[in-house]
Amino acid sequence: MTQHRRPAGLKLAVLALPTIAALTLVGCGASSDATGGQTQEFSLTFATSNTVESPYEALAKQYMETFPDIKITLNPQPNDSYDQVVRTQLQAGNASDVLVTSPGSASGRSILPLVDAGFLEPLGESAAALVPEGSEELFGPNGEVYGLAPEITVVGLVANDTAITATNTAFPEDFAGLLAQCGPLSEEGKSLFAVAGSASPNTGLLGMQLAATRVYAQDPAWNEKRSAGEVTFADTEGWQRALEAVVLMKDAGCFQGGAEGAGFDGVTKALVSGSSLAAFIPGPSNKQLKSTAEDQDFEVRVLPSEGGPSEDFIYASANYAYSINAASRNKEAATAFLEWLAEPEQTKAFAEIDGALPVTGLEGYDFENSAYKNVAELILENRYAPLPNSEWANASVYDELGSGVQGLLTGQQTPEQVLKAMDAAWDQ
Fold first, then answer.
1. Which tens digits make up the pLDDT trace of 348-406?
2. DSSP per residue over 197-236, as a string?
3. Per-residue pLDDT averaged across 124-146, rounded?
4. How are beta strands 191-194 and 276-279 bridged, if at all?
5. Beta strands in 249-398 (DSSP E)
6. Is the pLDDT of residue 301 over 90?
7. Which of 13, 161, 194, 411 lies in disulfide reach of 279, CB 3.0 to 4.6 Å?
8. Are strands 384-385 and 314-317 parallel, antiparallel or unpaired?
């Protein structure tokens, strides 16, 4: 397990233009001289989970329009089976030339285990320039970079601010106020939060968000200490309070009725209808929700801390990346594509399509007129960290958190049992 540090801030440098050699590879303005009159081809695999426009597909199509001598074969895969499909294809030697991966080691698509298995190709300076500060070791060992980050994903809450306004109350500023607001909303047939209780990725995110201020804001090196065996989940008071908070929220009526059996579709319906005011989902979901309900205003917010706004803390990181298959026979064409993606115009376009923050240029970003205005101060003051599970020993730790929080919602598990199971998964 590699060691990590808290990010010092998102990298704000403006990228240099691609080299002449890179421009030649992509056709130098679609000139036939670059390809010898022949079409260059490569393939791209990415995950898809809905009918909303995919930035991976949109940018690939734009690239082909810009450079007609290039053909990209698109291989979208369902998100729920993406990790298994990609891993199987890599092992079989028939994976796409370019793959969408995740920094860290938390899942089957994660960069570090794929690098350990010899499946990914190291990238150059353009990719390295886009790695958020403090996340370098999530993108590859020994100072090498194996993924190009296309955007910054903020993971807090996505709230229906139109529905919040209709309640004639302000969104709570601290955890005590949060609990106090849940009862009256429940009596009105509403809930402060919608949670997909039957989907462990969502219940896991609930648990991690409660740990943001209770664990990682207090001890940015906690993951490093866990890796070194200096601490455990079960003996960390902040983790205990985080999972106890799940029970407090359940007992206070903070979740929608039947939350323990709800799926992601239930979360979407609750937010769009305004029957729930917020949900534990990634920031880019604001764009998808807006496309469903154009008359509603969806904004990204932070889960209120116990100490109020001065102690708020959020997760923000590059959760996905473009990587090149080490076994690709089209590495030159794939590399040229990634060089093009690294240009500021493309990183801005990717973020706009996906509803995320751009990976460059945040010093000039118009937070006030965006869905991120409520978390602008946290981002600009560096009060954030990458999703902690990206640094955990294996994917099973997060699985135990997700299933454990499900058990807390149904009353079948206790916080102590969940934390011990997470420790066992880490040490396996």
1. 999 999 999 999 888 889 999 999 999 999 999 999 999 999 899 988 999 999 999 99
2. TT-HHHHHHHHHHHHIIIIITT-TTHHHHHHTTS--STT-
3. 93
4. parallel
5. 276-279, 298-301, 314-317, 321-325, 384-385
6. yes
7. 194
8. parallel
CA pair distance 299, 314, nearest whole angstrom: 14
Residue 90, CB-side half-sphere exposure with 13 Å CA sphere: 27
Residue 59 tokens read as 């940018």
Q: How far apart are CA 403 and CA 423, in angstroms?
A: 14
pLDDT at site 256: 97
Question: In the beta sheet, which residues pair with residue 173?
Answer: none
DSSP letter assigned to residue 74: E
What percent of the chain has a predicted confidence (pLDDT) above 90? 81
Contact, 283 vs 221, CB < 8 A?
no
Please report, for the chain, the start and end positions of each structural domain, with discontinuous segments joined by +. 20-152+318-360, 154-316+372-427
Does 154-316+372-427 match 20-152+318-360 at the fold level?
A: yes
- pLDDT at residue 293 greater than cutoff 80: yes
- Average pLDDT taken over every residue of the chain: 89
Rounded Cα gap, residues 187 and 167, in angstroms: 13
DSSP per-residue string spanning 178-191 = HHHHHHHHHHTT-E
The H or E element containing residue 153 is strand 153-155
Domain 154-316+372-427 CATH (choose: 1.10.10.10, 3.20.20.10, 3.30.470.20, 3.40.190.10): 3.40.190.10
